[in-house]
Amino acid sequence: MVQPRDYSLDFFKGITAISIIFIHTVWWTGQSYVPDFIRQYSLLLDVPLFFFLSGASATFGFEKAKPFSGIVRLILMYTLFYAVYTIIVNPANTFEEIIQTLFMKYSSTDKLMVVSGSAWFIPIFVVVYIVGFIIVKHTETNVIIPLICALLFYGIFAYEEIPFLHGLTALSVTSDFLFFYLFFFLLGYYFYKHFRFFEWHRVAGGVLFFIALTALIVHFYNIPFDLQSQKFPVKYHYLVASLLSVSLTILLSKYIKKESFITHIGKNAIAFYIAQGISSSMINNLVRSLEMDWFPKLAIVFTCNLTGAVIIAKLIIYAFGNYNKLVNKGFNYLDKSSLKVLKS
């Protein structure tokens, strides 16, 4: 039986995508004019929430006949983009570039720096999704996943004091990034699988928000609020800060019941992620040409960035749709040809 689509997941994925566009607006092109406190607070709603929502979506995705179709689509979308980019900029390296991107090795896109600057997300998401799938499919009790989340939380909290973890990698993803984002992925899966239908889940969201906010206030009370230094490499306080957006999502998810433009963005989050890298790279000249106070300048630049991302995402969705049709036709032709050969 096909379950009805949960628009709240798409909605908050859309909100996260828009937030990432804002983050890249203030960090990549806004460092010269946007106040630091705006840039730091923008990181409160960031990629960890997307992993939480992806874990929640995996409660449906892991039951599909093709549970890895989403990550295959992600890899192919980036491969298609890099192929087109290389054909335009450096056609001699097109074949090499395609092979590298299929193995999630992304070279620098000098003309579109934010695209390559955003590519770190791809191998992490693929590895986390695969590891999450293995854990879920081999977990027979409701206790194991919370226990794993607790261990992952401790691993991030005490990471500096556990030296042997520092050299561990999984498909080039370091252990701290794997622990961090796997924590949010499994947390999203477990919450959505077991608690979303209970009325008291909002109480849990409120308690989580209060604990995370208190921990942040205590830690940053006498020092500057600096999340960027906690993000690369990931540290405990970035995890705690990210729980604020997770808890708000838990509190508000019940109220999202209809489709909207934001849910459309959430359904096509991968295309918008690529698109924001392109649009964020293209607004440099606009930033330099505007001479005004930071607030109206930021409003104009962000609006242009968001509009550009929407237009580019539409083009990517259209191009990838036709690319999929062409590939499927090719495979169907090969299947029919091979059957004719076998029968002859």
- Note the total helix count: 16
Write down the overall mean pLDDT. Answer: 87
Strand order of the largest sheet: 1-2
N- to C-terminal separation? Answer: 41 Å
Assembly state? single chain
The low-pLDDT segments are none
SSE string: HHHHHHHHEEHHHHHHHH
How would you characterize the largest beta sheet?
2 strands, antiparallel
Give me the Rg, rounded: 21 Å
> Structural class of the secondary elements?
mainly alpha
Number of strands: 2
**Shape designation:** globular
How many structural domains can be distinguished in the coordinates? 1
Strand-residue proportion: under 5%
How helical, in percent, are the residues?
Answer: over 70%
Task: Walk me through what this model shows.
By secondary structure, the protein is mainly α. It has one domain (7-343). 72% of the residues lie in helices and 1% in strands. Strand 1 (169-170) and strand 2 form a beta hairpin. Helix 1 packs across helix 16 (294-343) and helix 4 (69-89) runs antiparallel to helix 5. The chain is globular. The mean pLDDT is 87.
Which SSEs are present, and which pair or pack?
Layout: H1 7-28, H2 36-42, H3 47-61, H4 69-89, H5 94-102, H6 113-118, H7 121-137, H8 144-157, E1 169-170, E2 173-174, H9 175-194, H10 201-220, H11 228-231, H12 236-252, H13 261-267, H14 269-282, H15 284-289, H16 294-343
Antiparallel strand pairs: 1-2
List keywords for this structure.
344 residues; mainly alpha; two-stranded antiparallel sheet; globular
Summary of the model, kept short:
By secondary structure, the chain is mainly alpha-helical. It has 16 helices and two strands.
